[in-house]
Amino acid sequence: QVQLVESGGGLVQAGGSLRLSCAASGSIFSVNTMGWYRQAPGKQRELVATISTGGSLNYAEFVKGRFTISRDNAKNTVYLQMNSLEPEDTAVYYCNYYCNVPFRRANYWGQGIQVTASS
Predict the structure, then answer these.
(1) Which of 2, 47, 66, 115 is 20 to 30 A from 90, alpha carbon to alpha carbon?
(2) 25-62 burial by CB neighbour count: b if 16+ within 10 A, else e?
(3) CB 64: neighbour CB atoms within 10 A?
């Protein structure tokens, strides 16, 4: 089992910044992907960004260069630096741990953390 604990959410004015952190613990395999997804009221959960242990990146189109994902493998922690936040970014953000290695396949989610950007 993998436990994911998110932190760093909150309320900011439009144009402001936040940095989300997600610390993973438990049965963490050396090859995995961690990332962030978000879900706004009335909408489906959508990918924001992912990063593998090897550093491969995947960003949603709507990020448009505003967000940066990174990770510290020694700390088993993934970060999401969010700049130029817009009201449309308001959502619950979920940390994800994913592993597709045979015999190590896993998919875990954090409890979610609220991000609100007000105009």
Answers:
(1) 2
(2) eeebeeebbbbbbbeeeeeeeebbbbbbeeeeeebeee
(3) 9
Query: How confident is the model over 71-116, as pLDDT tens digits?
Result: 999 999 999 999 999 999 999 999 999 999 999 999 999 999 999 9
**Element holding 79 (H helix, E strand):** strand 77-82
Q: In the predicted model, what is the mean pLDDT of residues 48-73?
A: 95
CA distance 98 to 112: 16
User: What's the CA gap between 31 and 29, in Å, rounded?
Assistant: 5
Number of other residues whose CB lies within 10 A of the CB of residue 98: 16
Q: Sort strands 46-52 and 33-39 into parallel, antiparallel or unpaired.
A: antiparallel
CA dist 37 and 60 (Å) reads 10
Closest residue by Cα to residue 112 from 7, 1, 3, 2: 7
Give me the long-range contacts of 58-66 (CB less than 8 A, separation at least 24).
62/88
